[in-house]
Amino acid sequence: MRFGILTVSDRSSRGERPDLSGPILAKTLQAKNWQVLQTGIVPDEMEIISKTLVKWADSRELDVILSTGGTGFAPRDITPEATRLVIERLTPGLDEVMRASSLKLTPHAMLSRGISGIRGKTLIVNLPGSPKAACENLLVIAPVLEHAVQLLQDDPGSEKGHQTA
Predict the structure, then answer these.
(1) Which terminus of the chain has fewer Cβ atoms in its 10 Å neighbourhood, N or C?
(2) Which CATH class for the 2-159 domain?
C-alpha cells in the first residue's frame, strides 16, 4: 500500500519544533512493508490543509493519507474541518474504533475530534498529534487497511475473505 503522511502543526511548519509524529508513523508503516511515498508539514490553516489533501488524493498515487495533529480542542485545531471539506464519504467505523480503543488508555480520548473518509479512491484518516497516540490509533485500524484499499480500488479479489451465507 502507498501512504502519505501530513503533519499539521504551526510550530513544526515554522521549524520551531521537530515533527516527531510523522517520522514514527512512517517507521510503523515501513515495518509493515507499506510504502511512504509522500510526507509534508503544514500549518494549522484550513485552506493549506484542504488543498494539500486534495492534491495528494487526486494524484491517485496514494492509497491512504494519514494526517497527524490538529484534532483536539485548541482554537487552531481544525484538521477535521479541513478534512470534511474534501472527503466525499465518511468512514465513521474507523473513527469510532480509534476513540474506543484510546479511551481504554486515557479519558482524554474523549477530546479527540479526528475523522476519516474517502476522496475518490483514497482513504484519509486524521490521527492525533502525539506520536504515541498517533501510532496507537494507526495500529488499531491497520488490520483493515489492506481490505479497505482493495474495496476502494474495486479489486475483484476484495470479496475473497467474505463468507457467503
Answers:
(1) C
(2) alpha beta
